[in-house]
UniProtKB/TrEMBL annotation:
This is AAA family ATPase. SMART domains: AAA. It comes from the Bacteria. Residues 94-239 form the AAA+ ATPase domain. Pfam families: AAA.
Length: 311
């Protein structure tokens, strides 16, 4: 680890061996394509680990709790590990691999993505639903037509951090096929001792994945192998109840605005009748996904009648 401008950095990959294309004007070499993995990358998250004065818990946990109070069990784990990171002199987001287990629409993936956004680590989501090879996670080694480093390495490139939040969605739905077992590949990435020197077939070099923050989601765990369960902290979560309707609506309203690249105030004004309809929809269905779709539809219909003024 090195300190640059007062912030901790690590170099994920020390060097990338030649693939023979360095002088080829038609084909970019692997070294050139993925050179950024050999540069220092920050370990992000220090600003959200400090305690909130009136609550005493890390800022990131307090924010998540306000947005998703029904996810208290998972947020408690995040708070404990954030406090431990500061206490041990590691001022960056460093979580033990976590498996969130709960019903569809409970907000598991949303919580994980907010963790990446709030911490500044960034996030990357890979769904295991229907996956029957390890290529999506392990990448494709040299010699393949579409050679590419492993998914966590690509997440580092996209987020420009050494500790992105990598989300494996619906991990229980992966299948073993002739092209490898994605869960078996995942095991080596979750174990920090082996992840620190993970050999990537595309880079033809070792890469340090030990700082990646892993969050797995599943609807059930009865079909998951014991070696996987032994490597993660299993946290059971439930979906939001009717009493959380206002909090869910406010959170999703901000999220829709953020995905559109706008501040929430730039969205069309939410009329009282429309708000009542949205709250009733959620209380009747308790589905975060259905409420989000309804908000997106409402915004789309509204902007047709209330054009946005551009400065």
């Amino acid at each position: 680890m090195q300190v640059v401008d007062g912030k901790p950095h690590v170099r994920p990959c020390r060097s990338i061996p030649s693939d023979g294309n360095e002088t080829n004007e038609w084909i970019a070499s692997i070294g050139a394509l993925y050179e950024q993995l050999t540069t220092l990358k920050p370990l992000a998250g220090s600003s959200v680990l400090t305690p909130v004065r009136h609550r005493g818990e890390p800022r990131i946990a307090a924010t998540l709790r306000a947005e998703a109070p029904w996810m208290g069990a998972a947020i408690d784990r995040i708070a404990d590990q954030a406090a431990m990171s500061l206490w041990t002199g590691r001022p960056w987001l460093s979580l033990r691999p976590m498996l969130l287990v709960g019903p569809p629409g409970a907000g598991k993936t949303h919580l994980a993505r907010r963790l990446g956004a709030l911490s500044g680590c960034g996030d990357a989501v890979l769904s295991f639903a229907g996956v029957n090879s390890n290529a999506e996670l392990a990448g494709n080694p040299r010699g393949f037509r579409h050679q590419q480093p492993c998914f966590p390495a690509m997440a580092m490139l996209r987020t420009n951090t050494a500790n992105p939040v990598v989300i494996i969605d619906e991990v229980e739905k992966a299948c073993t096929g002739d092209m490898g077992d994605p869960v078996a590949t995942l095991l080596g990435m979750l174990e920090r001792s082996t992840a620190a020197r993970y050999f990537d077939g595309c880079l033809a070099a070792e890469i340090d994945l030990s700082h990646v923050n892993w969050v797995l989601t599943a609807n059930r765990i009865d079909a998951l192998p014991a070696p996987l369960l032994s490597r993660v902290q299993v946290v059971e979560v439930s979906g939001p109840g009717p009493e959380h309707a206002e909090a869910v609506l406010a959170t999703l309203w901000r999220e829709v605005a953020r995905d559109l690249g706008l501040p929430p105030a730039a969205l069309p004004r939410l009329e009282a009748t429309a708000e009542t309809m949205l709250l009733r929809l959620f209380r009747n269905t308790r589905s975060v996904r259905r409420l989000r779709r309804a908000i997106e539809t409402l915004v789309a219909v509204s902007v047709r009648h209330v054009p946005r003024t551009l400065n």
